[in-house]
Each structure stands twice: as C-alpha cells, then as structure tokens.
Write a structure and sequence with these properties.
DNA_mismatch_repair_MutS_core, 893 residues, ATP-dependent DNA damage sensor activity, 17% strand, binds adenosine-5'-triphosphate, MutS, DNA mismatch repair protein, domain I, MutS, DNA mismatch repair protein, Chain A, domain 3
Length: 893
C-alpha cells in the first residue's frame, strides 16, 4: 500500500540507449520506483516520463516534451529549484513520496573527472513522516512516523518525530491499534504488507508507506545510538524493538544514510495513558472539531501557550492524558506554583513569546540541512532559556518550588552549551542562505577575516588599477566592470577603443587585449587585470569555503550539546504549558482538581470550556454551570430532557473535565474530585459511517459493543441516545439492557442520556441509578431552556413544544396529539414494564419507513392509522412518534 498507487501503473521504459544524464535518471528510478524522481537540471528540478505526467497533474504545471528516448518523445515538467519546497509540500499533502536526485559534484570536479555529465544521486526521499522543513510542517503538531511490527496476536509499535527527535514505543494487542492510530494521528505509517491491509490501516492508506520488518532490530538500533545494548533505555518487547528498528531504518533510507538526532526510545511499558478510542476522540473534539477545525476543539479553547513547541506539548498531553495519580498531581503542583507567582509567570511568558523552535532547528542541523537561522535559533533560544532561568531564580519567598519546575529550571541552562560561542560567532542579522555569505561575525575567525580582507582589499586594488589603466591608456573615462563570463574588464568609449586597437600589440602587464565590441563601447583586459580578477575570485571562494567550515564547526558544537539543548527546549515547552494552564486559571474560574485513587466523581459547578468560549465569543447568555455527582450509590446518572436542552453539552463537559484533569491541567469548575479514569468512552452526537458503508444503527451497536467489552469499573462512560437508530421498541430494549450491563456487570461511572422516559422506571430496580433531567420551563407559552440539570426524571415532556420551536406546523402538532391519544387508548393494557410482556423475545420490528427529508413528523403521521393496528403495533407506533416529537405534555391531552 505504498503511496501513491498511480505511480505503479505508469510503466518505466527500458534504460538502454539513454544519454548519460538520462541513464542517471534510470538508476534513481530503479532504486525508488514508488517515488517521483525530482531530477536536478541546472536551476530546475525536472520530472520525466510517467512521473512528469503525474506531477504535472498533481502540481497543475505545464507538461511538455523534449528529445527522444527509444523513438518516443520524453514527457517532461519542471519546477525552479529555489521554490522546490512549495511544490514538495503540495505533493506530500497529496500522499506522494519524492526522491530528490541532486547534483553531487561541482562542474570543476566533473571536468577533472572528465565525465560526460555531472554526477547526480538520490540525496533524500521526501515523505510525509520524514520532512523537516518548516514550510512542510505544521508548527503546533507533531509529525509522527509510526512503525508497526506484528508478532502473532500482538503488535510492536514505535513512533518517532524526526523534527524533534521524540521517540516512543509500545507493545499492544492488535485490537488496540485503532485507538493508538486515533491518539497519534501519524503522518506516515510503516507496516508489513499483510498488516497494511487491515481495515484500520486501509482507512489511512493514502498517507502511508511500507517496508518489511527487519530481522535483527536490536543490533541495528543499538548501533544507531552507539551503544551495545538497549537495556539502558528501558524494557522493550521484541516486537517493540523490531518496530523501532524499522522506523530508524526507514528514516536512514529516506535521508540517504544520514540519521537525525533521536532521543532514546521510551517504552510505555504498559504504564500507558488514559485510553480513548477514535470514536471517543471524535465525539469529544479534543484536537479539532468534528468538522476538522482546530479552533473549535478542546485544545483550541484551552490553549494559552505562546510557543509552537508549547502548543505541541499541550496537544500531546490532551491526546494522551496520564493514568496515574502521582505524576498528575506533580503537574498540578507546577500549575499551582506558577499561578501563585504571577509576576514570574508573566516574565516567563514574555520571554517565551517569539522564542525560536530549537527542537526543530536541531533536527535540521543534525541532518545537515540547515540554514543560518537554525544556528541563530539555538543561539537565541538558549538566550531566552537563560532569561527564564533567571526569572525562576528570582523566586525567593514561599511557595516552595515543585519538582517539575525545579527540574525544568535545571535543564534550562546547559552546563557547557554553545550559547556563548554562537553569540560570538554569528553575525547579526544573519543571511537567509549559507551561500549568501556573511553568516560569521567579524573578529570570530582570524583566517576568515584575512580572506575577507583580501577579497575586499582586492576591490580596492581594482579601483587603483582603474586609475593606473586610465592613465596608461590615456582614457579618462575608463571603467572596470565585472562581466558574468569574462570576469573584470576595462570598458572605454568606442572611439578610444578604436585608437587602442590601431596602436596594436604591446608588452607589459598593462597592455590592452581586446575582448568585446559593443555599440558605444569596447572592453579590454590586460595581464594585471586578469591577475587581479583571479585573486578576487579566489579570495571570495576561499572566504566562502572558510565560512562553510566555520558553519560546520558551529553545527558540530550544537550537535555535541544536542541532548542538553533538546532538554532545554523541552523545559521551555513544559514551562510554557504549565504557565498557560495557570494563566487560564488566573481569573479564579478554574480549579485544581483533586484526582484520587478511588472511583470518585463529584464536580461542583462544572462548565464546558468550548461551549462556554463560543457563548462568550457570540456575546450570548452566560454558560450555566452544572454539578455532577457519580460517586458510590449514584454511579449511573440517567439523564432525560428534550432536545436542545443541553444534554450533549453536559455529557461531554464531564468527559472533558477528566481529560483536562488527567492531562495535568486545571478544570473549569468550582470544585472537582475525580477518581482516576482508566478508559474514557464518549458516544455523543451523530455516528454515521458513510464512508465505511455502515448504517447509523450498525455503527452505534459496534461502538456500544466496544464499550461493553472494554470498559472497567474504573472507566467513565458518557452515552447519548443508545438505541435510536432502530425501531423504537427494539431501541428501548437495547438501551435497557446496555444500562443494566453498565450498572450490574461493569459498574463504571456512567452518564446515560435518553429519550426513552420509560427507562426512568428502572430507577427503583437499579440501586446505583440516579435519574436527572434538564430543566425546562414555560414562559408566556414558550419553552425556556434553563440548561440546568435537576434531580429526578423529567416530570413533563416538552417534545411538542420543541417541535414547534423547530418549525413543525401547528396542525401537524395537533394531529400528533390526537394520534398519540388514539394509539395510547389502543395500546392500553400493554405496559412495557410489566413482567408479562416478552420485551426481549419480541421478533424484530420492520425497519422504520424512510422519512421524506422535508418533515419526518409529517411522514410519521401520514403512515399511522390507529384503528387498523394491533395493540402492540400501536405501542410501537407510540414510541416512534414519541421519538420524533417527544411525549405529549399532560396539559395538552
Ligand atoms: N450549560 C449551558 N449553559 C448555557 N448554554 C448551554 C448550556 N448547555 C447547552 N447550552 C446551549 O444549548 C445548545 C444545545 O445544547 P445541546 O446540544 O447540549 O443540547 P441537547 O439537549 O444535547 O440537544 P440534542 O438532544 O438535540 O442534541 C448549545 O449549543 C448551547 O448553546
């Protein structure tokens, strides 16, 4: 399933008879048949043959033809080398891989070799999971490359981010793969063929590639880290080692042998994080909204970080909250501390603002693919880190510095970091590209200074020579100009030039030698000028060469201190996250949650951070806080209430509080005591799987099954409207049995929202079930949603009122009330809760008729003829109607 498949369908012509340059293309293509070859030709990268056809379409650029190969015209398209990044970005986004076949020698070297064409080799393969250029990356998201190595029914997973060096591994059951994919959202996946065909991976197929798992992973991994055994890094399963080696091998392959700086792999060792599957993540809109917008997500609402690295760290924490009390409390301590020292906090945040992304700069340095600004990023980043350390050192009074802050403080200033050296060495401002020259400050390197003096001195010498020649040739207006091809030439007016020509050949260093005749001028050179020309060019070349050497020296200096620089960068990101959390809590409306080891859940005046922010943005009514108590004896909250009353918001809000708390942040509530949650399940909102071809009902049942199979007594389940996708009679039965299973067998904390008011009758039968309802009141004939959760089941239903609000015409509503009354009369005697009624033995009802899009209520009414129905059919119809309109308010009957 290597991407992109269209490449495979384009045949590659045989290589025989190729010109020398074309022969190089064939070598590159044979080695990388699944990649587009970007073939360097002068100032362009060209694509040839089938690649050209694909790339021209994908990049929307012109396709042309040049020359012939074996009697066929060669298709061709190209992009300018200086703008190659934007084209790469386009292709990567479309799931292509690109092999960069660049010139790897200078024209001089080629001449010396007497080769017919300049040497070209694949220097790198650009893939979604291995890019390092800022323009190809999202600043605030990690770019995970995930490798999977199967072993019987288990999997080894290793994920690494070449842009920061972060590296994690985990051994997992095959069934847990979808959850891991949902958590990491990898940019690229490596998996052996058979695994790559699994449904979970096929969904991501267009962004993935594969290689075969290596045999001796342990040795190669150890080699990559220059150690003899991996034991020092932690306990890895063989599958984890295989996956990690696979990832490292792949990175090496794409970087043509070079390996970026990688942190030692961290095995999760089963400690793990709060488990959430893909459906839960989507439903809770953690990193982006259901429509894919990051701004309307949990992250978007709570993110107060001021750096991209801080935002990445916060996103990582929200995507994988912790599952142990002590490290969670440690993070809360850090937030508490930064909340208390407000002045220090704002100094830290001011210092962080605009700080460069050291982690990513370091990655580019380690791959030797850096620009001057990357060295500048290390210099400036370390300077900022020192500033932050000084700010923290200024805290003298209580409160005591918590361990996480102390550790970050210690990491901020690397003992022998390259900061002082970089400060001396780097010019300010820095040039955009190394080739531009001027990276190294004057006074740093004596030899470079001397070469530069020579180069610039030669310029002065040119001015002097110009005066000498003007005198010697008797042409006062003589000018020495630089010519691309001929170097320095002395230019004189045409008439003066004619005279010099007539005077004929002379000897000596100043004797004019004719080079060019133009309309009004002539150009000459002479031995002295040619000699000077050579010296200037040489000095310039040598200065450039020396500057490259100095740049490499500075690069090595940074790499020697890489672990310490990476640690300083991580400390900055960590402090950014804690300070941001404190900032959020600074106005007193967020509290430190008490995360306990018991199965508690008691929230006082909790709020939904995203809905609250949206209301504030729209200058709408204030968010109404709600309590939620799921402690022992009332573990299962059965929530009823009409549509639009705020059920979904309440369900999600309590799940989000758990995520925030276990991620180490404060929570939007007055008080919150939250027992540790091991797995969080949220099924709120529409669950269609149009792409997967499963009906709403199938999706709902599959997801419900997942909960019933995986939830434990330490889990939190928030469920909206189970059983909605089928005939209501069946739906009630399913909802009923799910509720019983959660209550009796799994015994987890649950909030269960339902339209089936009948379920509230279970309150008496299930001791830990506590009914609650969304409060609604009537005001001048209109429904007013209070958005407040009250105890007990809804007394009066408002379905008809809500239907009216939604625009269902009044005659339809009146008719609905009549029909319901008739139906209820017919169904009398059939109490759904009576023990005689074979609730679960009833054969499946026919699926509900497809409602015309315009008005489902109308359609439902049109179908019903109360007199022709048996009592049981009447009962079924009642449920169907009620699920559309809600029960009739008692007053209306
Ligand atoms: N606690 C609250 N305070 C203020 N406004 C709220 C509150 N809860 C919900 N709302 C507002 O009410 C709207 C509807 O809420 P929500 O989607 O939770 O209702 P619902 O009962 O789940 O409806 P449905 O059953 O149709 O999905 C929200 O978009 C929000 O604007």
């Amino acid at each position: 399933m290597s991407a992109p498949s269209p490449l495979e369908s384009k045949p590659i012509p045989p290589a025989e008879g190729a010109t020398p340059a074309l022969a190089q293309w064939f070598v590159a293509k044979a080695a990388h048949p699944d990649a587009l070859i970007f073939f360097r030709m002068g100032d362009f990268f060209e694509m040839l043959f089938g690649d050209a056809e694909i790339a021209a379409g994908a990049l929307d650029i012109a396709l042309s033809y040049r020359g012939e190969h074996r009697g066929e015209k060669v298709a061709l398209c190209g992009v300018p080398a200086h703008a190659v990044e934007s084209y790469l970005a386009k292709l990567i986004r479309q799931g292509f891989r690109v092999a960069i076949c660049d010139q790897t020698e200078t024209p001089e070297e080629q001449k010396r070799r007497k080769a017919p064409t300049i040497r070209r080799e694949v220097v790198r393969i650009v893939t979604p999971g291995t890019v390092t250029e800022d323009s190809l990356l999202e600043a605030s998201r990690p770019a995970w490359l995930l490798a999977l190595a199967p072993a019987e029914d288990r999997l080894g997973a290793a994920w690494l981010d070449v842009t920061t060096g972060a590296f994690g591994t985990e051994g997992l059951a095959a069934a847990d793969l979808p959850a891991l994919l949902a958590r990491l959202e990898p940019a690229e996946i490596l998996a052996p063929e058979d695994l790559a065909r699994s449904p979970a991976l096929l969904m991501l197929a267009e962004r993935t590639a594969h290689v075969s798992p290596p045999r001796d992973g342990t040795r190669r991994l150890a080699e990559a880290y220059g150690v003899s055994t991996l034991e020092g890094f932690g306990a890895f399963t063989p599958e984890e080692v295989a996956a990690a080696a696979m990832a490292v091998d792949y990175v090496r392959l794409t970087q043509a042998g070079a390996l970026p700086r990688l942190a030692p792999p961290v095995p999760s060792g089963g400690r793990g994080a709060l488990q959430m599957d893909g459906a839960t993540r989507r439903s809770l809109e953690i990193l982006r909204s259901e429509r894919g917008d990051p701004r309307h997500s949990l992250l978007g609402a709570v993110n107060r970080t001021v750096t991209a690295a801080g935002a990445r760290e916060l996103a990582a924490r929200l995507a994988a909250p912790l599952a142990e009390a002590a490290p969670i409390a440690a993070r809360h301590d850090a937030v508490d501390f930064l909340l208390a020292v407000q002045g220090v906090r704002s100094t830290l945040r001011d210092t962080l603002k605009g700080a460069p992304d050291m982690a990513r700069a370091l990655a580019r340095l380690s791959l030797d693919r850096f620009a001057p600004r990357d060295l500048g990023a290390i210099r400036d980043g370390l300077a900022r880190a020192e500033g932050m350390a000084a700010a923290l050192d200024a805290v003298v009074a209580a409160p005591p510095v918590p361990p996480l802050v102390a550790a970050a403080r210690a990491a901020l200033v690397p003992a022998d970091g390259p900061r002082a050296e970089l400060a001396r060495a780097l010019a300010d401002p820095l040039p955009a590209r190394l080739e531009d020259g001027g990276l190294v400050a004057a006074g740093y390197d004596g030899e470079l200074d001397a070469l530069r003096r020579l180069r610039d001195g030669a310029r002065e010498a040119i001015a002097a020579l110009q005066m000498d020649l003007a005198q010697a040739w008797g042409v006062a207006s003589l000018k020495i100009r630089h010519h691309q091809q001929f170097g320095f030439l002395a230019e004189v007016p045409a008439a003066a030039g004619e005279k010099l020509l007539r005077e004929g050949a002379k000897d000596g260093p100043h004797a004019p030698v004719h080079r060019q005749t133009m309309a009004n001028a002539m150009r000459f050179t002479c031995t002295a000028l040619a000699e000077l020309d050579r010296r200037v060019a040489e000095a310039g070349e040598q200065a450039a060469k020396r500057e490259r050497m100095v740049a490499q020296h500075l690069r090595r200096l940074c790499l020697a201190a890489a672990p310490a620089i990476a640690a300083a960068a991580a400390a900055m990101a960590e402090l950014d996250v804690h300070a941001a959390a404190a900032e959020l809590a600074a106005d007193g409306t967020w509290c430190r949650p008490d995360v306990t080891d018991r199965a508690d859940f008691a929230v006082v005046a909790g709020r939904h951070p995203v809905v609250e922010a949206a209301l504030a943005r729209a200058r709408g009514p204030a968010f109404v806080p709600n309590d939620c108590d799921l402690s022992a004896g009332r573990r299962l909250c059965l929530l009823t209430g009409p549509n639009m009353a705020g059920k979904s918001t309440f369900l999600r809000q309590n799940a989000l509080l758990v995520i925030l708390a276990q991620a180490g942040l404060f929570v939007p509530a007055e008080r919150a005591r939250l027992g540790l949650t091991d797995r969080l399940f949220s099924r709120v909102g529409a669950a269609d799987d149009i792409a997967g071809g499963r009906s709403t009902f199938m999706v709902e049942m599959a997801e419900t099954a997942a909960i019933l199979n995986q939830a434990t007594s330490r889990s939190l389940v928030v469920l909206d409207e189970v059983g909605r996708g089928t005939a209501t009679w069946d739906g009630l039965a399913i909802a009923w049995s799910v509720l019983e299973a959660l209550h009796d067998r799994i015994r987890c904390r649950t909030i269960f929202a339902t339209h089936f008011h009948e379920l509230t009758a279970l309150a008496g039968k299930l001791p830990d079930l506590a009914p609650a309802h969304m409060q609604v009141r009537e005001w001048r004939g209109e429904v007013v949603f209070e958005h407040r959760v009250g105890p007990g089941a809804a007394e009066k239903s408002w379905g008809v009122h809500v239907a009216r609000l939604a625009g269902v015409p009044r005659p339809v509503l009146t008719r609905a009330q009549e029909v319901l009354k008739a139906l209820e009369a017919r169904a009398r005697g059939l109490d759904p809760l009576s023990d005689e009624l074979p609730l679960f033995a009833r054969p499946a009802a026919p699926p509900p008729a497809e409602a015309p899009a315009a008005n489902p209520a109308l359609a439902a009414l049109a179908e019903i003829d109360a007199d022709s129905l048996s009592p049981r059919e009447a009962l079924d119809a009642i449920y169907r109607l009620k699920s559309l309109l809600g029960p009739v308010p008692p007053g209306a009957e």
